[in-house]
């Protein structure tokens, strides 16, 4: 296991969750993002044993560990996050669970991996933390590290699917990082980054969308 005390968190213009790390899993549970949501994410990702998988913005590593179970001992799963507290907690949880998932400090706009490394990239509720230009850079980086024929499974906020949601989300139209989501523009970002066959493959509470995109 890497010595987190010697690591330096990379700088990013995206939001970095630090003090939330000890209560992050509880926060997710309180808003309905429990393991059922993570397993739904993996259902859409259709992971196979032996695949090389990257989880960008992995947080405390819940999804990363579940992905490692799917890829099995012949695969490799790495979680990346810009928050040292999140990565430290993810490593501790993985060690307790004897998970093969690995965790690295890193930012989506400068992923610490070579070209065409991964079969699958997962992005769960990460994109809305990025301002518009960083979304573009991050998606281009994800495209770079995917193998030809590889795929991205992203889940994040989207244009609300029920009129009542607009009562709560319309102020987000004035927030630079979220406006593209509320306007339903994420497929355009994916296409601009070089992905094809971009499609919505699922919804969650009529507010989050699961997108699949291929390289």
Automatic annotation (TrEMBL):
Residue ranges that the Swiss-Prot or TrEMBL entry lists as coiled coil: none
Native source organism of the sequence: Nitrosococcus oceani (strain ATCC 19707 / BCRC 17464 / JCM 30415 / NCIMB 11848 / C-107)
Keyword Cytoplasm: no
Keywords: Methyltransferase, Transferase
Molecular function as annotated in GO: phosphoethanolamine N-methyltransferase activity
SUPFAM superfamilies: S-adenosyl-L-methionine-dependent methyltransferases
Every Methyltransferase domain range: 53-150
Keyword Methyltransferase among record annotations: yes
Enzyme Commission designation: 2.1.1.103
InterPro entries from the UniProt entry: Methyltransf_25, Methyltransf_Superfamily, SAM-dependent_MTases_sf
GO biological process: methylation
Protein name from the UniProt record: UbiE/COQ5 methyltransferase
């Amino acid at each position: 296991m890497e010595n987190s005390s010697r690591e330096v968190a990379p700088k990013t213009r995206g939001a970095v969750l630090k003090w939330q790390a000890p209560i992050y899993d509880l926060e997710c549970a309180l808003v309905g993002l429990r393991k059922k949501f993570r397993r739904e994410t993996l259902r859409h990702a259709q992971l196979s044993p032996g695949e090389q998988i990257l989880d960008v913005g992995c947080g405390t590593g819940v999804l990363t560990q579940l992905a490692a179970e799917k890829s099995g001992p012949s695969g490799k799963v790495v979680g990346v996050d810009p928050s040292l507290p999140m990565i430290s907690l993810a490593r501790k949880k993985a060690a307790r669970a004897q998970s093969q998932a690995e965790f690295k400090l890193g930012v989506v706009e400068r992923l610490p991996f070579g070209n065409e490394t991964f079969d699958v990239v997962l992005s769960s509720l990460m994109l809305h933390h990025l301002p518009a230009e960083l979304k573009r850079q991050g998606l281009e980086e994800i495209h770079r590290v995917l193998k030809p024929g590889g795929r991205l499974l992203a889940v994040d906020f989207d244009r609300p699917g029920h009129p009542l949601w607009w009562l709560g989300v319309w102020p987000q139209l004035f927030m630079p990082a979220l406006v593209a989501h509320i306007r339903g523009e994420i497929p355009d970002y994916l296409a601009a980054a070089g992905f094809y066959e971009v499609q919505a493959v699922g919804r969650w509470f009529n507010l989050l969308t699961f997108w699949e995109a291929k390289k």
